[in-house]
Description:
B: 348 residues, Rossmann fold, five-stranded mixed sheet, 17% strand
Amino acid sequence: xxxxxxxxxxxxxxxxxxxxxxxxxxxxxxxxxxxxxxxxxxxxxxxxxxxxxxxxxxxxxxxxxxxxxxxxxxxxxxxxxxxxxxxxxxxxxxxxxxxxxxxxxxxxxxxxxxxxxxxxxxxxxxxxxxxxxxxxxxxxxxxxxxxxxxxxxxxxxxxxxxxxxxxxxxxxxxxxxxxxxxxxxxxxxxxxxxxxxxxxxxxxxxxxxxxxxxxxxxxxxxxxxxxxxxxxxxxxxxxxxxxxxxxxxxxxxxxxxxxxxxxxxxxxxxxxxxxxxxxxxxxxxxxxxxxxxxxxxxxxxxxxxxxxxxxxxxxxxxxxxxxxxxxxxxxxxxxxxxxxxxxxxxxxxxxxxxxxxxxxxxxxxxxxxxxxxxxxxxxxxxxxxxxxxxxxxxxxxxxxxxxxxxxxxxxxxxxxxxxxxxxxxxxxxxxxxxxxxxxxxxxxxxxxxxxxxxxxxxx
Amino acid sequence: xxxxxxxxxxxxxxxxxxxxxxxxxxxxxxxxxxxxxxxxxxxxxxxxxxxxxxxxxxxxxxxxxxxxxxxxxxxxxxxxxxxxxxxxxxxxxxxxxxxxxxxxxxxxxxxxxxxxxxxxxxxxxxxxxxxxxxxxxxxxxxxxxxxxxxxxxxxxxxxxxxxxxxxxxxxxxxxxxxxxxxxxxxxxxxxxxxxxxxxxxxxxxxxxxxxxxxxxxxxxxxxxxxxxxxxxxxxxxxxxxxxxxxxxxxxxxxxxxxxxxxxxxxxxxxxxxxxxxxxxxxxxxxxxxxxxxxxxxxxxxxxxxxxxxxxxxxxxxxxxxxxxxxxxxxxxxxxxxxxxxxxxxxxx
Lengths: 459, 348
């Protein structure tokens, strides 16, 4: 009998939610065959069976959230049962890098799977990957049932109340439901209660609300009014919501816009895309060009490739490029690690691989962490310019909007029609000022307009 | 009566212990103990010393060098290897009005006189109404590659007896003041000198012949706010070392040196735990039923409302002290172990 336990998909992950059992009790399963799907703050993924055998017992139901290590199921094994790690598998075969392509190739026509994000990427499961805005995701804020003790479930140890915590809470009239625990596993420590006392938290819940949540009423009841439909927020949706709000409350966000003439890029791509696909086995979108242009600018302006840590600015000597990818259920940001060491071919391949596996929910937690800068590409959906929200703890996020033909002034003051694109960046004014941000963007623009990308494509 | 003369020229031989202080006036733990003995022998004629090799030889660790030459062989008595007899002599002479200080060459050998210590000495006052001002002293503790016959921490066995105070100083000044208090105490005191500390630690020590440190009172060696370490003996020095590295990691450690193991100064211990809410009890005696067990129980019982984490004990296992240096180091709580325990507690 083999015990299947809730895996730990990241160092700081303390719990996970069962999204779907792919096998039922009594069904046979092969070793490494996917057994269930789980959701954590960082990523949703399939978990394979460590042994071949029959699923004897399922102990945790779909939708339940349990701590790491909890026994989830039992499998009666046949033959050798070597302990297998419960991390997710890699992608099966390469597929069209649908999302990234859709993200970049606004002009590439409807025959390409540009609508990929809107189409069901895989089978029916409503699963969508998490938005991994780094730091905030570790607080264990996953949706889970409220405890019978009346405290919201904020982590596996959030309901452990030590003697001194209870004593102080009683003495000072502190509502422990309003206190966030900073101890291991979300435990409320003595210092947390003392801090709550110092900041004036009392037993009256309404008075303790943070500015972002003006009332402390419980979630609205799920009763639809006339003409209304209630859709419960998915786990992913809640995670995205939390991270987006936190990002805007953390960074001093400013935004700068430049316009680039990418006529030659459009022509280049038209010319080489078929040969590229034949030779490299992946589709050529505009995204690799933008990534390459951006990487160079990040190395020229390292403060934009930095993160704020306390009072220190941490400069990275490498570039891990996050690429925002959209799905019908939400958003995920896979990360191209070491993008500064890749040419356009390498970037194109990396994007194709990550996007494929993102759709198949086969990304590993380390593939959605560690971005030093992020690019988002809403252009294909028709936007002219966008103001993205920074992917914490980055200093900037670049938005590449729609490539459109526009009349522009060219040499000798003639007017010509050229493919133009608005490239903008939301950036954190705590770390950089307008001059750097603007010079950075100007460098991206210059790179896009002047580089010979054909050379970079090895053609 | 003539005694065998020891060769002159040997350092400090025949000299009063105070002559053995360093040039800046600091005394090692061992010299502080010798000074206490000398001063009390001078102060009160009824005080006398007995033990193996303490006279002509000057003691296995040279604590009592020079004593027999000065005080004579009626007050510095070399005994046979017979611990039960040593305790019996001490008990008998104390009944007659003397104030014996009995040395055990290694504290490990005290168990040879176990019955005389626990059944007789510890209960005599209760049975007869006559207090016995006996001091039993000897080098205890490990970390010197002494192996299982020369490294024991016997304090739990004799604290358990119920009629004997047990004292374990960690610093030279406390060593002197507590031994003097022990000798002046009208009831039995076991005074355990940790051999690891003998020549390793030195400090300024009072020369006032009436300098006393009270039995039954702990001392806060280091103030802190995150975790309390309650400890005694050589472990105090390990804890202090750990506290410095922990400070660099942002964990503020308070160190309470019990000084007297029985009776424990509960007030100092409990007020430290009330301050930090996290307690690590560090004892070189064995883990199961060692001194740590008692201190932890008292904290859990009387400081329950102040605790933000369970009380942890750090002690060696209930095993013979190993001879191999690697094994002994693994056996004893080290600075790393203390740091790990404190980090565990501070993130509980």
